[in-house]
């Protein structure tokens, strides 16, 4: 018989997750949020997120067995880490509730019921923290336990009540928070990044409920003379670590995802303009000067401005009749209207470039209307990446002009 079947803790040890992993992920989340928190310090929601992540980091730093032993040794009080860690966890739970309530309802639109709920959460969880310290002061727990304190002292007066109190407070907070999150996920008009962040948060709080169920089951087994300590010492810790990772990523995703999406959109737009930019450089003989410290947004603006400036100079040489014929030819070749306009503009611009780099300095005649062209430079630049299509449109657009030439000529 497989010995792991008789000892589930042996199997769980194979999947142990160090508490320093969620600590690192939570710290990374805090560091990612920190510049925004500092820049927008007056925003209470951002301050709340920062405080929440800081509390989460503190929880996983202080529940690590090595840190528990250090805290007990420095203070000289055996197991004083218990009420300290329980207090941090309780404060974290209350902060989660407050943040979700404020985040969902908006601080500027808080109703009387929302303010009343937030006051209730603050009072209730502050009272729980005070009670934890009072119960520890009344309890007799002289033997230091680094990993199995919850089950070892499950039947000890006052420690029993303390353990049950923190687990119930944690369970209630996670249950309410996960319910609020999943209700929010089902609402409409959520940003995709926010929706996925909320889903990860919801999954993290569901895992927290599994953590609580494991702890409560192991403690209850001790009350009735059983031994399911492996649920508390081997199952609950990795579940808590995985939960913290999901919660940290859930908080990071809406901000970091949107930030990366915006950066990618700007860089993609800058890259898409490259063919038209290079073509305009052949007209002006110059280009945009590269600035090492320029932001992606500034580089995009400078490239767009350069292209439009050169196009305005080139507009006098654009053959409007050719552009019209090219548009019709592109439609005949099966292109949708937007694509046909881009191909026609590309044909007319290439024709203008081929006939001369710049307009004559004495030419003061008004040029064609370039409003649409200047607004569609991205589409035109994308069209320039397909020279075969441009050549097909140009050849078809040139047919009427060739056929119109008299035979005797």
Radius of gyration computed on alpha carbons:
33 Å
The secondary structure category is mainly alpha
Instruction: Tell me the span between the first and last alpha carbons.
Output: 101 Å
Helix/strand order, N-terminal first: HHHHHHHHHHHHHHHHHH
From the 3D coordinates, which CATH architecture of the largest domain would you assign?
Answer: Up-down Bundle
Helix content: over 70%
Low-confidence stretches: 1-16, 361-365, 401-409
Number of distinct beta strands: 0
> Domains counted in the coordinates: how many?
2
Give the count of helical stretches: 18
- Average pLDDT confidence is 81
What is the overall shape? Answer: elongated
Describe the structure.
- It is a single chain.
- By secondary structure, this protein is an all-alpha fold.
- It folds into two domains: 3-257, Rhopdopsin 7-helix transmembrane proteins (Up-down Bundle), CATH 1.20.1070; 277-403, no CATH class.
- 76% of the residues lie in helices and 0% in strands.
- The chain has helices spanning 3-6, 8-13, 20-39, 44-62, 65-75, 81-105, 112-138, 149-152, 159-185, 192-223, 229-272, 274-284, 296-314, 320-332, 337-355, 371-375, 377-383, 387-403.
- Helix 15 crosses helix 18 (387-403).
- The longest helix has 44 residues, at 229-272.
- It is elongated and about 100 Å long.
- InterPro entries: DUF6545, MAB_1171c-like.
- It comes from Streptomyces shenzhenensis.
- Keywords: Membrane, Transmembrane, Transmembrane helix.
- This is DUF6545 domain-containing protein.
